[in-house]
Amino acid sequence: MHQERRIAIVGADEADEIGIVPGKSALMLQAEAARNALRDAGLSFADVDGVFTTGFGTGWAPSMSFAEYVGIVPRYTDSTATGGSAFVIMVEHAVAALELGLCNVALIVHGENGYSGRHLPRPSRVPDPWTPAGQFEAPFGAGGPAGMYAMAAMRHMAVYGTTSEQLAEVAVSTRRWAQLNPKALKREPLTIADVLASRWIAYPLHLLDCCLVTDAGGAVVLTTADRARGCRKPPVWVLGTGEAHTHNSLIGMPDLTVSPAKISGELALARAGVRREDIDVLEVYDSFTYTVIVTLESLGFCGPGEGGPFVEGGRLGPGGALPTNTSGGGLSYTHSGMFGIFLLIEAVRQLRGECGARQVANARLALCNGTGGFLSSCGTVILGRD
Amino acid sequence: MTAGGGKPQPQPTPETLPFWEAARDGRLRLPFCRECQAFFFYPRNLCPRCGGSEIAWRDVSGRGRVHTFSINYAPQAPGFADDVPYVTALIDLDEGPRMMTRLVDVEPRPDAIRVGMRVEVVFADGGSGFMLPLFRPAADAS
To answer: Is A115 a catalytic residue?
Structure first.
């Protein structure tokens, strides 16, 4: 039933400290995360011959910056620029490279000082004035993620009657998971009323509908089945993957109530040969509460427009029918800029049974869905244990 | 890039220049694909639907409906800190294409703006001499 078990994630970890970590550069966070993930696998930098990274904080050539910093000379390199989905999309790229024998040990790494580096100039976040977004969005005051996702959420609310309370349910369920994760930044209790009482960032999104801004790094290590069997921990198999993007600027988005997860999710499920009801743990990018609702619909866990009612009653939280974002997500655990890597790390830990108080019992299958840009790109990965 | 009150200014490219030249004259002018007989936006040197490269430029009515909007309490682009709260919106033009714009002449309140609301174009100086196509509630807004 499952895809043949040929490629596995064998290592996964964060940087030494995550959250508010002043005094560490993006490259320091990347190096720590990579070293820790390799240690988790029982491997070293000398074993790595495939390097996958991207981001805003390390210059125009992210994979070259990172590889030089840690002393790797890779045979395979990837700096895919699809935003926060990239690290999930890179799993598909790593699988392809490993299966072709283009590399033997693939390292996917992220690190960004999103909080402590917030005063650094970030020209890449403002579109160049000759690009479509620079000509037809930025001059009108549009371009920040909150405003863009607010417009998408507003459309969903107008078409389907989705409510602010339903959006807030996502923040509350996610916070309940964070309360069980010692590494989560935000662990104090949270209610729907708290979310609704928080200030507007971009109507219809409140402050507590928005992800955190933190400093963090994370990495995962992949290799082939023969090599995976000799690693320190049991392999977590990559059973199916998919990737897609439908637009870049919001004016190009075909339907503001559907994300590219509709394409990437269908591909991943079909390739893995699993059904949605078989998934034990769901890890989906929660840049904003709306991102979770549109992703659940686009992945087919509920029908179009049904995401609001679907998340009611704590369905996504601890003890709920569909454990989702069990780390506490970007909303409450950490969000340094491009969250995708942390979806993978948490899924690996759940499938290994390493999650302590937040462990989902008998978790055998996990689905990760990364989203990037303005609901522009998605990568879906389905992972399973032996 | 950030002249005119520090706001981002468009830098026209060869395929977008007719749009910005018309805007300077207070006209909303869009590319029209002769092969699929339909407008598209933003301007390109080929039609994103059919790949056709026979592009004409035609004036449009400047009327449409709010597809969606947000009321921004934090600036979403450089130079907009003094403008909050301000309204950004996607407009479905009567001729088909969808544009990003800023809604003006309307209170930045949820009860003053509605998805589906009728709007019309109004040109305003965005700085550096660029006339931007903004939108305001139309006479038949309700």
So the answer is: no
